[in-house]
Amino acid sequence: MDAVNIDAMLARFAEHWSPKKVAELNDYDVKLVKVQGEFTWHRHDETDEFFLVLDGELTIQLRDGDVLLRPRELYVVPRGVEHCPRAEVETTILLLEPRGVVNTGDTGGPLTAVAQTLAS
Amino acid sequence: MDAVNIDAMLARFAEHWSPKKVAELNDYDVKLVKVQGEFTWHRHDETDEFFLVLDGELTIQLRDGDVLLRPRELYVVPRGVEHCPRAEVETTILLLEPRGVVNTGDTGGPLTAVAQTLAS
What we know:
Jelly Rolls; eight-stranded mixed sheet; 1 helix
């Protein structure tokens, strides 16, 4: 594996809510995603989910309040906790979660996306 | 858990080569570390190790060549691979690895540090 330059990777795709795998850490995937607008309420019963905002601003809506993330801010959504990400402006995020986690969790639906791999 | 502001966390410590835990992701720890100078050659036989450079410049020396990481560049050192991080200038890094991994791996010695937790 070579070093992964996040900005070079981000330049290679434009679509929103479609995570791209850029590295592996044991049985976890390191992914980049661009988002804008509102995702869908969902939860992951089997795993926590790590979000690090790189650019933009992300609101992680939870049933009991919002978590606002600006660049160089991170948050871990605990397993089983319903959440719905939302971004007013285009926002880029580094995600970490176990391999095979489905982005829409228990909810499924049209926003479900299989993470493509971007080779470095 | 609240959002973790990386810069606020980095402002809370100064020592080098002493990772601070700022979040948990399942059985993994999310850590921040400041480094300068050369660490020690070591390996982790049981796990990969994730490095994301935030500021500065990190050289991960491997037995068959160096990996240079600038800000917004990441690298995963595979399990079992000997490595020795080195930084000319003070460099800040986000680390991810399973809980309980010892920073000096199989080598031990005076640079061995138990990660303190910084509450957000």
